[in-house]
Amino acid sequence: xxxxxxxxxxxxxxxxxxxxxxxxxxxxxxxxxxxxxxxxxxxxxxxxxxxxxxxxxxxxxxxxxxxxxxxxxxxxxxxxxxxxxxxxxxxxxxxxxxxxxxxxxxxxxxxxxxxxxxxxxxxxxxxxxxxxxxxxxxxxxxxxxxxxxxxxxxxxxxxxxxxxxxxxxxxxxxxxxxxxxxxxxxxxxxxxxxxxxxxxxxxxxxxxxxxxxxxxxxxxxxxxxxxxxxxxxxxxxxxxxxxxxxxxxxxxxxxx
Length: 256
Ligand code: 8X3
Known about the structure:
- The protein is built from 8 helices and 9 strands.
- It is α/β, with parallel strands linked by helices and 256 residues long.
- A 7-stranded parallel sheet has the order 3-2-1-4-5-6-7, with helices on both faces. A two-stranded antiparallel sheet has the order 8-9.
- Helix 1 packs across helix 8, helix 3 (68-78) packs parallel to helix 4 and helix 4 runs parallel beside helix 5.
- The termini are far apart.
- The structure holds 2-hydroxyethylsulfonic acid (8X3).
- 2-hydroxyethylsulfonic acid (8X3) is lined by residues 141-143, 185-186.
């Protein structure tokens, strides 16, 4: 029987997680470290990623995915070989209808969720290719599959994340690089909704009010680590993950 190459139990394998300072990114860094990867924790907030890197035996690299020079420095720090890239940096800014939405907020969402992903992927593809077994995991969203009122800028950006993921898979077929998307629905993290609502804690809390068990960052991290550790010939194209209480974007069970 042919031995199938696996992505586990090989401590020398390296992973990069962007947006690793909090939420899904930080949980993913922990999950990949637990799976045996040396994890490069990339984010803007150095105090947070340094603490995380120390905790998991990884490395902190300050990185703003919206900045060319910063991403070039990340690639330099990663070096010649990389096995896993998790494009997690992203977010939602604002909750206005299209008619009155703010152009700068939409620009910022496209910049981080789409152009940031593109920038980091371009910079790290040579190292992923050189490893002989690379995988890019893009953190998408259920917002990349449906639309909802007051979410136009974010759903447009996350639809773009999905489109770029699919395009890259087509373009790289035949190469030793897998391309996946993990698309979460309702995840209760400390910052996602707070950032979306500009720091309005009450508005952020209302998103999860009465929902028995929204997903937590660790649930998504677990899925990402699973995708990353399938045998090298197995490409999980996309994995949509929602809490049991969320049957669809607008169909959420709440206990009053
Ligand atoms: C987050 C999911 O429901 O806020 O990506 O669009 S949602």
